Amino acid sequence: MSIRVAIADDHALVRAGFRALIEAEPGLEVVGEAADGAEAVELAQTAEPDVVLMDIRMPGTDGVAATSQITSQETAGRLARVLILTTFDLDEYVYAALRAGASGFLLKDTPPAELLAAIRIVAAGDALLAPSVTRKLIREFARQAPASPRPALDVLTDREQDVLALVARGLTNAEIATDLFITLATVKTHVSRLLTKLAARDRAQLIVIAYESRFVTPA
Q1: Which neighbouring-strand residues pair with 85?
Q2: Domains of the chain, each with CATH number or no CATH
Q3: Residue 199: which region, alpha, beta or left (left: phi > 0; alpha: psi -120 to 50)?
Q4: DSSP characters over 151-210
Q5: Taking the CA of residue 111 as centre, how many other CA atoms within 13 Å lie in the half-sphere pointing to its CB?
Q6: What is the model's pLDDT at position 130?
Q7: What does pTM read for this prediction?
Q8: For the ranges 113-117, 138-142, 174-178, which has the lowest average pLDDT?
Q9: What span, in angstroms and rounded, lies between the C-alpha atoms of 111 and 52?
């Protein structure tokens, strides 16, 4: 089945460019466009996308508010994942968007092949938080974020805590397996248990939890 994608951006030319790129890719289809956050929320309910490409800075309801609404509602058993698009790698709204439930972010000048790969990554339930620029952003905004009440981390085993720390640093499953000298399958099992124990919807939320609880602190 095709991955269903919705595009939210207040510039018609930007939406048209993304649509042309996505529709030319096998296995991906665009199910709708929105010119602002309010339209994006409505589109997520009616078109049932798997992934919403979300611009942050839009008139009216911005991308952060729209992301929070979209990630908190399930339509026909489908919970859309949000991939944030931004012009600046240190956009002050990006960390807020991650806290709101976004599964990752990309710069608008990202090469087309990377954008298409990112859509597939997010649709599969992973977080797009591995690139070094993202680590820089997470550290920057985590430094500003106050500690927040989060699920007790003492429910985690020592190994699960090890895995959580590495997830929070932006490592992929393969990198974690190498670092801890365990198999890739074992890493996936630990990540799955982390998601369950910490009531997180994806890796992006695990990272936010790790930083906001001060389990991991910026280097």
Answers
A1: 55, 106
A2: 3-128 (3.40.50.2300), 153-212 (1.10.10.10)
A3: left
A4: --GGGS-HHHHHHHHHHHTT--HHHHHHHHT--HHHHHHHHHHHHHHTT-SSHHHHHHHH
A5: 3
A6: 46
A7: 0.77
A8: 138-142
A9: 18
